[in-house]
Structure formats: C-alpha cells, structure tokens
Amino acid sequence: MPPKKTTTTGGGGGGERGQIGGGDANLKQKSPAEFFQDNKGIAGFENAGKSLYTTLREFIENALDAAEHIGVLPQVDVLVEEVTLTQYETMIGLDAHVRKDDTLYDDFETEKARAKRLEREAKVEMQLEKAAAANANKGKKGGGRGNANSSKGEEKKSYFKITVKDNGKGMEHSDIPNMLGRVLSGTKYGVRQTRGKFGLGSKMALIWSKQTTGLPIRVRSAQPGQNFVSEYVLDIDIEKNAPNVHKEEKKPNTTKWHGAELSVTIEGNWTSHRQYVLAYLRQLAIVTPYAALGFRYISSHAAGSAAARNQDIQLHFARRAEVMPPLPRATKYHPSAAKENQLLVKDLLSNTREKTLSGFFNKEFTCINREHANRLSRELGAGFSASMHPKNVSDKQGARIQQLLASARFSDPSGECLSPAGEYNLRLGVMKELGPDWIASYASPALACGGHPLIVEACVSLGGRDVKPGFNVFRFANRIPLLFEGGADVATRCVQRLNWTTYKIDKNNDKIGVFVSIVSTKIPFKGTSKEYIGDENAEIAEAVDKAIKQCAAQLRGKIVRAQALKDRRARKKALTKYVPDCCNAIFTMIASAADADTLPHERARNYDEKEMLWPVDVQWEEEATQKARTREITAEILQKRLEECVEKIDNEEALEFSMQQNKDGLKQDVFLNPFSSFAHEYEPELRPGESGVAFRLLKKARLIA
Q: Within the chain, what is the greatest distance between any pair of CA atoms?
C-alpha cells in the first residue's frame, strides 16, 4: 500500500484526541468521527446486514440529489459484488497462508460437532425446499435462498464491494477529500428539505469500511463541461476527523461524462437484509418514477454454477415520468419555532444583518410582513420600538421576544420551499409498480410543525400485483422509503384507527395499499434510529388522518359507482334474458287477435255488462291487429323494440344517478404530464351544455425559482 498523504485542509476537524488543559487527566475529548464510530447504531450501522443496507441507501440518495440539483433526470446504477475471503486477503496485501495447526482456529470443528452441523443444515435445507415449493405454487417472485448455514440469525462474516454511479453534478476536485473524509462537513445544512437524516451521507460508510476492512474508498467524479475526471483513493483519520488521501489524479474526460462513481468494500450480510434492499429499491421507484434505477448483485460462487445463477440478481426500474419535482429551497424559520427552540431568537438576533427590530421580524421569519412586524414591535411594550437595533436587545428583552413569538398567532407557511413528490408522480409510481385496480390521491396544504413547513401526500390503492390482503403501509419521509419500525409510525396508527367499513372497504380481505409521503425542512423523527414518525404530534396525526380519509372517500365514490353500474348491468342482463320469451308470448296473443272476427275487448267475459277489467284503447287494438295481418308486426320487430326500450330505461337511470351525484358521479380524473416545472393554477370548472365532459382552463403559470 502506498504511503499515506494527509490532507491539511483546516476547519471542522475537532482537533486531536487528548487531554484538555492541565487539570484532571481523565478529561478528554473525541472527534466527531470517533463519536460516530463508537455510536454507529444511531446512524444505521448497528450490525453487518443493516450496515450494508444503509451504505447502499446513502450512496443512492446522494446520487439522486446530485442529478436533481442540476435538473437532470437521474440515472443511478448500483453494483454489489460479494468478495471471498481469498479475494479480500489479496486486496489488503496478505499472502495465502497454509495452516499448520487447525485446532488453533475458531472455525475448527470436531467430528461430533461436524455431524451435528450437517444434521442441522439438512433440516434447514429441507425446510427451505418446502418453502420454495410453496412459493412457486403461489406464483410469488423471489431470488436466491441464501446459505443454509446463515439461517436462524447466524451472522457469517462476508465482504462486499459496493459501486454506485450517477449522472449528477459531480464534485469539485479540491472538495472531494473533505466532502467524503470529514464528518459533519457538507453542503446540505440550513433550513431546507433534504433527503439525509443525519448529515453524514457516505462518511459513515467510509468509517464502517475503515473499521471492518481497512480499505479506502475509490472516487471518480466530473462536473458538467469539465474536461477532466477527478480520481481519488482516500480514507479517514478517525482520531483527527480528517481525510487521508492515498491517490489523487486528473484524467482526460474524453466521453464528456459528468457525475460521480463511488466504490467501497465493507463487511456485510446480504442474506439477512436482501429483502430490505429490494423493498427499498421498489419503494424508491414508486416515489421517484422520473429516475431510472439499475441494480445488480453478483454472488461469490463459481461463475456459471447453478448456485450462482440462483443467487445473482439483476433489476431495472425504468423511468416512467419526464418531469421532476421542483428543487427544495432554503427558507427562514416560521415564528412558531420559538416554541420548540428557546435559543432560536438569541441566535438570530446575534447573526442578523438587519438594522431595525421590525426588519428583524420581517426578514428573519416567514409569514411576517412589514405591517405585522410593526404590530409585533408595538406589542412588546416599554423598552422596545420598531426602529430599535437588534444588537441592542438584552437577554431579558430577547426572552420577551421569544415569549411573544411563542404565543402569537401566525398563518401557516406557503410550502413553496418544499419539494413534495407530487400527486402525479406518486400516482404514477404506484400504478407502475403495483398496477392496482383503483387508486386515489390527496396532497394537504402546507402546515407548520415545530416551526418548519410540512406537507403530507397520500395515496390509497385497492388490488394490484404482489399485494397481500389487508393493510400494506408504505411510508416516505422527504421522498425516501422508511422500512423499519413501521408499527409505531403515525401512518400505520392512522390506518389502524380508521373505520374502513364506512368507505365500503373490507380491511381483512381487500388488498389495501396506503402510501404516505411527508416532506419538511425538518422531519420530526422519533428514536435515535430515525426510522419512524410518531403520532404524538397532533398536527401531523391530524394531517395524515385527513389525507388518508380524503383518499378513502374518493375510493368510496368509485366503489359505489362501480357497484351501481354492476347492478344496472345485472338488471339489464336479466331483462334482456326474458325479452325473447316475452316477445313470443305477446306476438302469439296479437296474432290470435288478428285471426279472430272481433277485437279482444269484445270477447271479454264481462263485455256485455260494459265493465272492463282494464282501460281499453280500441284504436290501438285495431291498429295492432291490422299490422299483425299485414306482417308489419313480427316477433323479431317486437324483440328489437323491447331491447331498445330496455336500453333507453337503463340510460335514463344512469343519467338520473349521475344527477343525484351532483353531476360528478361518473366523472373520472385524468392527469396530464406537464412539460415544465411550472406551478399551475386553474380557472373554475366548465361544463359545456349538457355534455358529460368537465374541464378547467389554465391560468397564467408561475415559475417556481
């Protein structure tokens, strides 16, 4: 291995570990990298399987962010290669070692232990074969079974080389070491919506690689229009929280490629977390249908063997949309943030560039215009004025400002700084991946949660591919899937509390898909793992509950209309079934009357008493018998006329049903794909004449910067 070259870029390092001052020798400090190495569980690296999953997730999300940042439809290719122990030893420069005393090694087993292991593996293999046969009979999809001796939670040490390539903006050549090798350094800090949950990104993967394999990360990067490709090989000095650069090079960019390619070798467990990786990719394709995702897994079995073919996986999630959501924008705090953060006002007063107190209110917070700022300044009382300089505010006065902001009423934020998936993309993703029979969607207006804008989007589907009966809840936060601890999530709790029978939905037998996407400048996660959103926050719980109910109400309307249509078709089918018999009976009666010397009513039993059992139209009788004699009325003509009558009545009932549904009973929403990133506003709904078509015209579009 070449000698290490240490980057001396300053800032954010945290200094060397050691004693602080000249006091107690036990008083020491740790760098951020050391802290996360010792507490890697809070970043999703608690075991080998979860670490493999988290590394893939971090790399993929960084790739999506990089492409979206420059307005390019993402193309992300992921390769996971299993590395054998021999290959790993070669990579770290160890020669093959021939054992002299096998009993010294941990993997040595006696004949008795070997017999027990073989017996146990035979039982597991038999169980796996039965399960595979059952799955095949049910037509379920699946890949390789994994190793039998990895079952029942036995964690076998394995190594994997992960490579992720994208077509994004790339990284500045000189910034690459700090962006990848210095913890808590990045470009996503501030009050804005981001995919990341910890601000660590790929840095934690590099720490895990350093800890488990000792191998560096390899990076290739190029920015748009750049005539060279940056290549780095680096790792991280954990004690100093600084990058160690092993290789730095610039190569000609002959293909005009732009993006980044990261490759890292880590310890992992594919068998235990294979299902989570595949579920993550599938759900990511739902919430980002505008991205093309490629995934390939290559096992370490001998090339061409049956076992390798069974365990290798290759997936491609095609792009189904051409329009991305608008980029999230940095924003200011909502005034209600003062309720959650007692230090917020003090920090903003210290860092503001405004010269007046009213300007401070107006520029440092959202939802406060100049008039409102002046009213707040007057409300503060004695010792305050609208022209007061923020730097002259004392700590006591700052506490008064914080108290006022925490208790005053403010309008909800606009949400223009957020980048939700959008109803169109969310519906399209669900339709693409699940193919449901019915689907409904809803997007809530923006609301303030802890001083941060928040938007809830929801979809509810019925039916579909590979969807089990009952509830299937899919959760997303800032457009990334959440796969763990779903039972405690606000979306799951709202689904369980809802009375689905009100909406004509059978919660036990119907295949119900519930998709809830929450975007915010700060997602209120619960727990250190940040894998779920609790329902303790009444505002979020109410917004999620409302979104799901709106979708369920839309589905109820569709179900009612479908059932009414089914009933009408059944009634029409029943009537049509008896038309031939009725026509034959009627024609036989008319033909008999035509052959008689007198009209039918004259042959009635009580004709002499001049009391008819029913009203008689003599003229109609004469015309009908005459037409029967001249063959103007036949059984075929009667059948045709009766079928026309059934059709007419059916159409009239359908029209009446539509009118009862306020003319919306048969209306179906049609979503058209816009060719721009404009936010559209619409005119009121128009209905020309008595047609069944309703439409809304576009107002002048507003560009979201």
A: 134
If one compares 341 and 700, the residue with the highest pLDDT of the two is 341
Q: Which CATH architecture has domain 33-95+157-189+201-322?
A: 2-Layer Sandwich (3.30)
Long-range contacts formed by 21-26: CB under 8 A, 24+ apart: none
Please compute, for residue 675, the number of CA atoms within 13 A of its CA located in the half-sphere on the CB side.
Answer: 0
- CB within 8 Å of 118: residues ≥ 6 apart: none
User: For residues 164 and 221, what is the distance between their CA atoms, to the nearest angstrom?
Assistant: 12
Helix 538-595, helix 635-660: angle, nearest 10: 160
Binding residues are 62, 166, 187-188, 196-203, 530
Structure confidence by residue, pLDDT tens digits, 418-470 = 889 888 888 888 988 888 989 999 999 988 888 888 999 999 999 988 889 99
In a 13 Å sphere around the CA of 545, the CA atoms on its Cβ side amount to 13
CA–CA gap between residue 69 and residue 329 (Å, rounded): 11
Q: Which two tokens stand for residue 399?
A: 């506490």
> Of all helices (H) and strands (E), which one includes residue 81?
strand 75-83
The tokens for 238 are: 């954990």
Q: What is the pLDDT of residues 230-273, one digit of tens each?
A: 999 999 988 888 899 999 999 999 999 999 999 999 999 998 99
Measured CA to CA, the distance from residue 417 to residue 109 in angstroms comes to 62
Distances (CA, A) of 117 to 110, 111, 113, 128, 148: 10, 10, 6, 16, 11
Q: Could you give the dihedral angle defined by the CA atoms of residues 477, 478, 480 and 484, in that order, rounded to the nearest 10 degrees?
A: -20
Residues marked as binding for ATP? 62, 166, 187-188, 196-203, 530
Answer yes or no: is pLDDT of 12 > 50: no
Q: Is the pLDDT of residue 157 over 70?
A: no
Gap between the Cα atoms of 53 and 430, Å rounded? 23
* CA distances in angstroms from 66 to 20, 162, 259, 381, listed in the order given: 40, 18, 8, 49
Identify the CA nearest to 476 among candidates 515, 529, 513.
515
Q: Which amino acid is at 192?
A: R
Question: In this structure, which topology does domain 423-498+516-554 adopt according to CATH?
Answer: Ribosomal Protein S5; domain 2 (3.30.230)
Q: What type of residue sits at position 693?
A: V
E strand residue ranges, 186-344:
217-222, 228-237, 242-252, 259-268, 292-298, 313-317
CA distances from 500 to 54, 471, 546 (A): 35, 11, 14
Burial of 137 (0-12, 13-18, 19+ CB in 10 A): exposed
Report the length, in residues, of the chain: 705
Q: Which has more pLDDT, 143 or 354? A: 354
Q: For the chain, how are helix, strand and coil distributed in percent, rounded to 5?
A: 40, 20, 40
Pairing mode, if any, of strands 158-165 and 259-268? Answer: antiparallel
CATH topology of domain 337-407: Helicase, Ruva Protein; domain 3 (1.10.8)
3-class DSSP state of 185: coil
Token pair for residue 109?
Answer: 């087993």
Residues 6+ apart with CB under 8 A from 644: none
Q: Where are the domains of the chain?
A: 33-95+157-189+201-322, 337-407, 423-498+516-554, 562-654
Q: How far apart are CA 457 and CA 444, in angstroms?
A: 6
Structure tokens at 257: 């490629």
* Same fold for the pair 337-407 and 423-498+516-554: no
Instruction: Give every CB contact of residue 19 below 8 A, 6+ residues apart in sequence.
Output: 25, 27, 28
pLDDT digits (tens, 9 = 90+) for 479-513: 989 998 888 899 999 999 999 999 999 989 999 99
Instruction: Answer for the pair 52, 36: CB distance below 8 angstroms, yes or no.
Output: no
